[in-house]
Amino acid sequence: MEFAFNDEQQMIRDTAEAFLQNHSDSAAIRQAMASPLGYDAALWQTLCQDMYWQALHLPEAVGGIGLGYVELVAIVEQMGRHLLCAPYFSTVALAANALLLAGSEAQQVEHLGTIAEGKTASLAFSSSAAFTPDAVTATFTRDGDSVVLSGAYQHVIDGASCELLVLAARDAASGALQLFVAPADAEGIHREAVPGMDQTRRRAKIQLDGLRLPAAAQLGEFENAEAPLQQCLDLACIALAAEQVGLMQQLLDMAVAYTGERQQFNRPIASFQAVKHIAAEMMLRTEVGRSAIYYAACIADEFLAGTASASALAEAASVAKAWCSEAAFKNAGDTLQLHGGVGFTWEYDVHLFFKRAKASEHLLGNSDEHRERIAAMLLDEVN
Fold it and tell me: Pick from 98, 54, 103: which is nearest to 231 by CA?
């Protein structure tokens, strides 16, 4: 596949880079980390009302811009590069994609319309760190014109601050999985922020205690919604891998800048062959990752248009996530080493990227899990 940005895509990417350079610098990141929400609410409104990024790939029928996943990935890559603290991944890559894939037309108009206007949202599905529908253990029962949900979720991104939740639960009688949408502050939903290593992205655990919702809160009409949930998670993996490529690029830039300044033996350490080799390997990992995410983004666009299969999407997503998870953490480790002792200090930003790289490595499945998934798909094809 030969890929290159068109003029519009290049403009979107350049605009995102310029905006985030000015609004997501070190001081802004640290201020957001220390805030109660974990992000700057005023900046989020700017992203929504002025930049309109949260509506980028949403259909025009629900108030979106109607662009594709390539454009989304181009922006998310820059968000990773500048370590943006905002509920974008949870709202767009998780909740909005779940509504796109599983919601009826009326549900999409109602809920995606509010997301397009700036409402924050997230997806709660897993009771563990797993990234497949098998991790759903919450249950629901039908009671007349209502459904009653109970259970627990772990690792819900921005779960303590979001305004809307998409919830996965299994029928207590049949075990069939369904998706439901609910206001995050509904009675019966108990949310608790969970301290984590990565302070730039908040997580929460959620407990459902007899959450009663109208039957119309169920998304779509599926006998079993495992397929749309898995496809949503695959799309989210592509977005997360794009963020990791942004991390890789910024870590490379930080390493090159610092080694050009740090002196040993009266010369910059960047002039040492061993340091050059490390930087070259970091660049190689970054460029391979970039190829993987834009290939996966093209497959995602084809899937959303109905011209690519779910298995093609799954394979592309797992290839991108497997490579980028490992490569981002390796680049983070190399950058830390090249900075020497100061790389561990609070004053330098390296540790912020290191923590994000490690946390995102395990979010939605680590490299080993995705490689195992790819191997299983290949074996199925052979057999």
Answer: 98
Residue carrying structure tokens 């460029």: 287
- Cα(208)–Cα(211) distance, rounded to whole angstroms? 6
Distance CA 107, CA 322 (A): 33
Of 42, 54, 90, 50, nearest in space to 240 by CA: 90
Q: Cα dist. 238→81, 276, 289, 294 in Å?
A: 16, 30, 11, 9
For the segment 70-129, what is each residue's pLDDT rounded down to a tens digit? Answer: 999 999 999 999 999 999 999 999 999 999 999 999 999 999 999 999 999 999 998 776
Q: Length of the chain, please? A: 383
In sequence order, the β-bridge partners of residue 168 are: 179
> Mind giving me the DSSP string for 135-163?
G---EEEEETTEEEEEEEEEEEETTTT-S
Q: Is 76 helix (H, G, I), strand (E, B) or coil?
A: helix
List, in order, residues 6 or more apart from 178 with CB less than 8 Å away: 140, 168, 169, 170, 171, 218, 219, 222, 224, 225
Is residue 335 a contact partner of residue 327, using CB atoms and an 8 Å limit?
no
Q: Dig out the tokens for 22 from the structure.
A: 């000015």
Checking phi first, is residue 343 left (phi over 0); if not, alpha (psi -120 to 50) or beta?
Answer: alpha
Q: What 3-state DSSP class applies to 181? A: strand
Residue 275: what residue type?
V
Residue 1: predicted pLDDT: 63
pLDDT in tens, 151-162: 999 999 999 999
Closest to 62 in 3D by CA, of 12, 99, 102: 99
**What's the pTM?**
0.96
CA distance 80 to 287: 15
Q: 39, 86 in Cβ contact below 8 A?
A: yes
The type of residue at 153 is Y
> Residues 141, 173: contact at Cβ < 8 Å?
yes
Q: Which helix (H) or strand (E) holds 290?
A: helix 273-305
- Cα 257 to Cα 121: distance, rounded to the nearest angstrom: 37
What's the CA gap between 55 and 326, in Å, rounded? 30
Judged by phi (left if over 0) then psi (alpha if -120 to 50, else beta), residue 266 lies in left
